[in-house]
Amino acid sequence: MNFAKNLARGVILVGAFVGTAAHAQLRFEISGVGSTQIPVAVAAFADESIAPAQVSEVIKADLERSGVFKVIDAGGAISEKGPIDYGKFKAAGARALVAGSVSKMADGRYDVRYKLFDTVNSGELSSMNQATLERYTRLSAHKIADDVYEKLTGVRGAFATRIAYVNENRAGRMYRLEVADADGMGVQVAVSSNEPIISPSWSPDGTKVAYVSFEAKKAVVWVQDLMTGSRKIVVNQKGSNSAPAWSPDGSKLAVALSKDGHTQVYTLNSDGSGLRRVSNSAGIDTEPQWSADGQWIYFTSDRSGGPQIYKMPAGGGNATRVTFNGSYNITPRLSSDGKTLAWVSQRNGDFALYAMDLASGQELRLADSATEPSFSPNGKYLMYATGAGGRKSLAVVSVDGRVKQRLTTNAGTIREPNWGPFMK
Length: 424
Prior knowledge:
Elements: E1 13-14, E2 27-31, E3 38-44, H1 55-66, E4 69-77, H2 86-91, E5 96-104, E6 110-118, E7 123-132, H3 137-153, E8 162-169, E9 174-181, E10 188-193, E11 197-202, E12 208-213, E13 220-225, E14 231-235, E15 241-246, E16 252-257, E17 264-269, E18 276-277, E19 285-290, E20 296-301, E21 308-313, E22 320-321, E23 329-334, E24 340-347, E25 350-357, E26 363-367, E27 370-375, E28 381-388, E29 391-398, E30 404-408, E31 413-419
Parallel strand pairs: 3-4, 3-5
Antiparallel strand pairs: 1-10, 2-30, 5-6, 6-7, 8-9, 8-31, 9-10, 11-12, 12-13, 13-14, 15-16, 16-17, 17-18, 19-20, 20-21, 21-22, 23-24, 24-25, 25-26, 27-28, 28-29, 29-30
Domain TolB N-terminal: 27-124
Family: Belongs to the TolB family.
Subunit structure: The Tol-Pal system is composed of five core proteins: the inner membrane proteins TolA, TolQ and TolR, the periplasmic protein TolB and the outer membrane protein Pal. They form a network linking the inner and outer membranes and the peptidoglycan layer.
């Protein structure tokens, strides 16, 4: 990975996100579990066979994939309205029980109901009723899994979120910006091109993605509306336009531009107006990322001789170096709670994913052969690109390094993941 090539890397066929589905789904392979797992029994939902998605199976898969839960077979269907044999599940080692039902409403929607029971104290922990369209039954299941995750861990679940990434078929010279559910299902094509697409970045409200395309034979920053398929150029200055990143409130973008001769960090309004240079060095400043509170911009700079991570006030000003271990540190990413910095470091000839507790400065090596990290919106996982021989896939690792997942596809090489925000 050459630092200068990270500054930027087009698009001729654009389809509305809502209408274009990809044939190949991503597949998850799970390895590793958390240091302690919470035992949860998940029962089949009463009458769930009438729905296009088996709600209980989606919930089980979500909870198992997180590495946080040990899923126990409940031994049959249990409605949320039925009597609960708390002693049975407590004896089986389950701390909680998930039960529910699915019914079809007169207007064609599905009524998905669920309750979470505390088997230790013999009581109800949570409940949820959802009236959902047929195509959103999997989403209903993800929302239930999110509720289970939050009630039993105290942390908001991220199963009902989406990811964006680039799917590249070099042999056919085709590049696609794809969006999928966080479990790799429901893949849809947002943009298709025979020119490279790089650096997708979700807007905080989850309705848009900024990205870089090369359709003009140079790097230009676009913003795509995922619901309508409409898109517009937001930055097309002289030279390279690259590395878009949204501010936490969605009102601004930070970008890396070479308009003044060498690449520096700029900010602008999300509609493309108000361009302003905020970094000032004799070297290369690139890969900007906003802090969770919007007060700082972290970025990569070679001002000290080799690429390192720095931070500066979002409005510009003196920059402070953040990384000191290793001579090649790039691609900063910040967790949503502002506590953790993740980045890629080249050490001993390999690119590895590191995370740092910003309060203590303590570093943890999370994954080898890793590039292009992106935090889950709850800050508990990192998705990244990995692979050898030029063929990349995506992987996920928990911030403590214990849980690892891999997403694969038989359709091209997938890279440049960006984990979307919580949906409202």
